Each structure stands twice: as structure tokens, then as C-alpha cells.
């Protein structure tokens, strides 16, 4: 399986992007937002993908702290970086969606926007410091704290203008199903990128090499 993924990584990633693009292209316009709803859906799916990656990195980090294994160390690092990247992408996609729906590019007064930027900043700091420290235990603990923080912020951050769950509360079953279909290639792409990053860490990561030697 690993050999197949390594050989076909880019085609599989392109397939995920093509499926997501096809779903967005075929989905109907919404009564109020019109075709802008497609950007909103992409923004939401990328947000879910990034959040899943960051929280999963924390879970795998906890598993490593309980039972240290090289594979867990690689996966917590790969999931954290991939999840953070998708989280940044969701913010970038949210900018034209915000511009077209509310007027400004960034809704600075919106709590969810503030939370998004906080996660980007804290996540970047965790990634940089973990890289500098170069300790699998430190990385696992840092990712655990980051994942727990993301879960807490997402659950507790309120809203002003931004609907709390615009897709889940939509009266259209068709739009909800389309969103679920869009989540599949987005999350698959996030996991695929996380896997590749984990593999790259196993090939070049000095901390993993030192761990193998110590064993």
C-alpha cells in the first residue's frame, strides 16, 4: 500500500482536487448567495479538513506519549503540518467569499475570524518550535496541546454575523448532501498530504534516525 501511494501520490492528489472541483461546478446556486455559495462550501470543507488534521495530530501525539512508536511520531508531525496547511487554505478561500457576501475581505470584528487567525499563528509557532527543538516527545506534546486548543476554540467561539452552522441548518437536503460529498475528497487530500509528510520525515528526519539508532 505504501509503495502504491508513493508512486501515485500526485495523481491521487490531482484526483481529489478534480473531484472537489467537479462537485463545486455541478452544484446548484443558492437562492440568497447565488454561485457564491460554492466558495462558502469550499471554505467550509477546507475548514473541516484542517480542523480534523490538527485535532487528529493531537490524538496521535497523545498516543505517542503513552506508547512511543516511530510511526506515531511521524504521523503526528505529518497531520499537524497538513492540517495547518488546510486551515490556512480555508482562511484564504474565505477572503473572496467574505468580500462577495459582506463587503470587506476580512471581517475583523467576527469572533470566528479572530479564532481562525489565532489558530494560524499558534499553529505556525508550534511547527517552527517543534522543528527547532527536534524532539519527537516535544512535538507530540505540542501537537496534543494544539489539537486540544483547536477543539476548545471551535466549540466555544461565538458568532456575530457569521452563521454558526449555515450548512447543517440549511433547509435544503440537496445542499447538505453536496457538502458531505465535497468533504470526502477534501479530507482524503488532507490525509494523503499528511501521509506523504510522514513518509518524508521517515526518510530525512534526524530525530527519527537518532531514535532508531538509540533502539
Outline the fold blueprint:
Layout: H1 2-7, H2 9-26, H3 37-66, H4 70-101, H5 111-133, H6 136-156, H7 173-204, H8 206-214
Helix pairs in contact: 2-7, 3-4, 3-6, 3-7, 4-5, 4-6, 4-7, 5-6
Please tell me about this protein's structure:
- By secondary structure, this protein is mainly α.
- The chain has one domain.
- It is built from 8 helices and no strands.
- α3 runs antiparallel to α4 (70-101) and α5 (111-133) packs antiparallel against α6.
- The radius of gyration is 18 Å and the shape is globular.
- Residues 208-215 have low confidence and may be disordered.
The stretches of 5 or more residues where confidence is low (pLDDT under 50) are: 208-215
- What is the string of SSEs from the N terminus onward? HHHHHHHH
Overall 3D shape: globular
Q: What is the structural class?
A: mainly alpha
Separation of the first and last Cα atoms: 26 Å
**What does the largest sheet look like?**
none
How much of the residues is beta strand, in percent? Answer: under 5%
Helix proportion of residues, in percent? over 70%
Structurally, the number of domains stands at 1
Please count the helical segments. 8
Radius of gyration: 18 Å
Overall mean confidence score, pLDDT:
88
Number of strands: 0
Short description:
The protein has 215 residues and is mostly helical.
Amino acid at each position: 500500500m505504501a509503495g502504491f501511494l508513493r508512486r501515485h501520490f500526485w495523481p491521487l492528489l490531482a484526483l481529489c482536487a478534480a473531484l472537489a472541483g467537479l462537485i463545486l461546478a455541478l452544484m446548484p446556486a443558492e437562492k440568497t448567495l447565488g454561485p457564491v455559495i460554492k466558495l462558502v462550501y469550499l471554505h467550509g470543507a477546507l475548514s473541516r479538513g484542517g480542523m480534523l488534521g490538527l485535532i487528529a495530530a493531537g490524538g496521535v501525539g497523545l498516543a505517542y506519549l503513552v506508547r512511543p512508536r516511530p510511526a506515531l511520531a511521524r504521523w503526528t508531525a505529518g497531520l499537524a503540518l497538513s492540517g495547518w496547511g488546510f486551515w490556512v487554505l480555508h482562511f484564504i478561500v474565505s477572503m473572496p467569499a467574505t468580500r462577495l457576501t459582506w463587503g470587506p475581505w476580512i471581517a475583523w470584528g467576527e469572533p470566528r475570524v479572530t479564532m481562525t487567525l489565532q489558530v494560524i499563528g499558534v499553529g505556525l509557532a508550534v511547527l517552527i518550535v517543534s522543528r527547532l527543538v527536534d524532539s519527537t516527545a516535544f512535538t507530540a506534546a505540542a501537537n496534543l496541546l494544539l489539537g486540544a486548543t483547536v477543539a476548545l476554540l471551535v466549540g466555544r467561539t461565538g458568532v456575530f454575523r457569521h452563521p454558526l452552522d449555515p450548512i447543517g441548518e440549511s433547509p435544503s437536503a440537496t445542499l447538505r448532501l453536496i457538502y458531505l460529498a465535497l468533504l470526502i475528497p477534501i479530507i482524503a487530500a488532507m490525509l494523503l498530504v499528511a501521509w506523504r509528510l510522514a513518509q518524508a520525515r521517515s526518510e530525512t528526519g534526524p530525530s527519527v534516525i537518532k531514535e532508531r539508532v538509540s533502539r
